[in-house]
Design a protein that fits this description.
- It catalyses: aceneuramate = aldehydo-N-acetyl-D-mannosamine + pyruvate.
- Belongs to the DapA family. NanA subfamily.
- InterPro entries: Aldolase_TIM, DapA-like.
- By secondary structure, the chain is of the alpha/beta class.
- It has 13 helices and eight strands.
- Helix 3 packs across helix 4 and helix 9 runs antiparallel to helix 10.
- The structure holds ligand SI3.
């Protein structure tokens, strides 16, 4: 299959990384996790991203996780995209090579952290180096300015790619609120690139702009809500689509009131799925049973548990 033949449609879960109470990986949860996603109609994953605490994992752990997702997903998931970004571009090359060797469907990368690129052209040059390490895999740029602090317009990256050649480049996972840049990227080069939208709380806006694929942390347990939103939108029922998006916004508003971070999100995953995902890695905080009980009561009151069933 050529790079440009790679397509992706629908929800892509950014999976949590299951851990034991002592902080070690709990790989035995990945197989039931795959089934849990499939039961919600979520058929793609984006492994070792921010939700997966990729930046807190060692190289060996990232490789083990990628291997486990690819093997557990075989015949069940459509695409396993492995995130390979970090502080060191040579580590990213190694992870890219590894992802290719284990049969992942695609890779994605954040720009390097600490020493950061500042222009679209510099991002393109980094992607060229990473992409060359996995010449058969479609490569996505992971735009997450909130965390990466790389505040480029992705359209500038797409322009730069006209001179800095990255033969495996396939598009962008866009986790930001700038709908103008997102819209410009969707039509750039006549829609040549895939734009996966990454802010669950405003996926409906991205749908209206023309997006067809979405990466999210809350899809892990609310896949049915977002799939209903997509189906309603595709059927022209905007009111029903808005109702589902409003539920997701109500839910996220509650989490924000309790200091939403990936650690809290991971606890919600355990609460909803009934599987124990363990604590997050430091510096994210463990939450007390008392606090979790309060959050649970608020979610119950707003109908969240009914909506995700
Ligand atoms: C920073 C972050 O966590 N972003 C989430 C969103 O799903 C996000 O949690 C959600 O929109 C709530 O803000 C995804 O874009 C994350 C993601 O795809 C990843 O783990 O890499």
């Amino acid at each position: 299959m050529s790079i440009m033949d790679f397509q992706i449609d629908g929800l892509v879960a950014a999976p949590f990384t299951p851990m034991k109470d002592n902080g070690e990986l709990n790989l035995s949860l990945i197989e039931p996790y795959v089934d849990y996603l499939v039961s919600q109609g979520v058929l793609n994953t984006f492994v070792c991203g921010s939700t997966g605490e990729g930046a807190s994992l060692s190289m060996a752990e990232r490789k083990m996780l990628a291997e486990k997702w690819v093997s557990a997903g075989k015949g069940k998931l459509t695409n396993v995209i492995v995130h390979v970004g970090g502080c060191s571009i040579t580590d990213s090359q190694e992870l890219a090579r590894h992802a290719e060797s284990i049969g992942a469907q695609a890779i994605a990368s954040l720009p390097t952290c600490v020493f950061r690129p500042t222009t679209g052209k510099q991002v393109a040059e980094q992607l060229q180096i990473i992409g060359a390490a996995a010449p058969s895999l479609p490569l996505f740029y992971y735009h997450l300015p909130d965390m990466s602090k790389v505040n480029i317009m992705v359209e500038d990256l797409f322009d730069a790619l006209e001179t800095v050649k990255v033969p495996t480049f396939r598009g962008c996972k866009y986790t930001d609120y700038n709908m103008m840049d997102f819209g410009r990227c969707l039509v750039h080069s006549n829609g040549k690139y895939i734009m996966m939208y990454g802010r669950d709380e405003q996926g409906l806006c991205a749908l209206v702009m023309g997006a067809t694929s979405f990466v999210g942390s809350t899809f892990n347990y609310s896949g049915k809500v977002y799939n209903r939103m997509r189906a309603a939108y595709d059927n022209g029922d905007l009111e029903a689509a808005r109702k589902e998006q409003n539920m997701s916004q109500h839910f996220l508003r509650i989490l924000v009131q309790y200091g939403m971070d990936i650690g809290l999100n991971k606890y919600i995953m355990s609460m909803v799925s009934g599987m124990d995902f363990g604590p997050p890695r430091p510096p994210m905080q463990r939450r007390s049973e008392e606090e979790l009980a309060k959050i649970k009561a608020k979610l119950q009151a707003c109908g969240f548990f009914e909506a995700v069933k």
